[in-house]
Amino acid sequence: MRYRPFGISGVAASAISLLLQARPGADAQRLALAALENGINTFTLVGGSREVAEGAGIAWTQVERHLLVLGLRLPGPAGRPVTAEYLSAVIREHLAWAGLEYFDFLLLEEAAFAALTSEAIRLLGDLRAVGLARLIGVAGSSEALDACIGSELFEVLAAPFDMTSGWAMRRRIKNAVEAEMALICCDASPDALCQPPRAQKAKLNLLGRAPANPLSGAGTYAFLHHTKGWGAEELCIGYVLTEPAFATIQIDTTDVALIERYASITDRDLPTGVAAQIEMARFAVQQPIARSA
Q1: Nearest residue to 11 via CA among 55, 52, 71, 60
Q2: Which DSSP helix (H) or strand (E) runs through 286?
Q3: Residue-by-residue pLDDT tens, the chain, 293 positions
Q4: Is 239 helix (H, G, I), strand (E, B) or coil?
Q5: What are the C-alpha distances in Å from 240 to residues 73, 117, 168, 211, 247?
Q6: In 21-158, alpha helices (H)
Q7: Which of 201, 169, 183, 172 is nearest to 291 (CA)?
Q8: What is the pairing mode between strands 103-109 and 248-251?
Q9: Pair type for strands 248-251 and 42-46
Q10: What is the CA radius of gyration of the chain?
């Protein structure tokens, strides 16, 4: 496992990190232990599940607290304002559930950020001042979050980024780096990019054979599914690892075997020629990758 500075916080984050949330098959203790065994020290806990927080907390006791980088991600109360009372209560209860004294970072999802009351905004600074959440950040992809970049209040940005990301997102990442924010990459391997393309029936020539086409697949992402020794998700993660702006790449899985596979990518170099294929595909005329909301 490789480690990178988490912004200017002074702590080192594993290049691969794990998102922990309530979902089918999610045994937080089992997943967190598997991650720790593979050198992962950075975790983001999605707020809302006592079971997940308690399970992860048990696993985290196996490592000295100062060696871990632990965050809480808040979606916010649906359809209601995010008040200071709500923020204070939810942070303290998740700390208690996980058996922690503080979170290294607190992330507000777009909906929570948009619903902040003025009192809640002031409380964010207080939470940092008293050490309950040492860094404050936002998570999402909308242009509304651009206002947080360079703000004295926000020091962490979690955003989707992959080999298809356009100039708008790349400019946002560049601005965040210049503002010395800690960057977390989410959704490095979107399903729409990693799913094998549907096979198309080749046209046959007069001899009943498909004509050879040495340039077949050039300028597309077909290479993701035909690179020896690499899966599509691994190539996507390997590509983002070449971007030094990100402190960590967040994975979201309930499969222990995948945690081990993805953690091992940090010690591998992309195969020769893949970088060129990525650039050819990026600049080719293609449909944008669809993302889930």
Answers
A1: 71
A2: none
A3: 999 999 988 899 999 999 999 987 789 999 999 999 999 999 999 998 999 999 999 999 999 999 999 999 999 777 889 999 999 999 999 999 999 999 999 999 999 999 999 999 999 999 999 999 999 999 999 888 899 998 999 999 999 999 888 889 999 999 999 999 999 999 998 888 888 766 445 555 555 665 555 444 445 788 888 888 999 999 999 999 999 999 999 999 999 999 999 999 999 999 888 888 888 887 764 444 555 44
A4: helix
A5: 22, 35, 17, 36, 11
A6: 28-37, 50-60, 84-98, 110-114, 118-130
A7: 169
A8: unpaired
A9: unpaired
A10: 21
Longest Cα separation, the chain: 78
Residue owning tokens 């020629």: 273
Domain spanning 3-192+243-268: CATH 3.20.20.100: yes
The answer to pTM > 0.70 is: yes
Any alpha helices (H) in 145-231, and if so which ranges?
167-178, 191-194
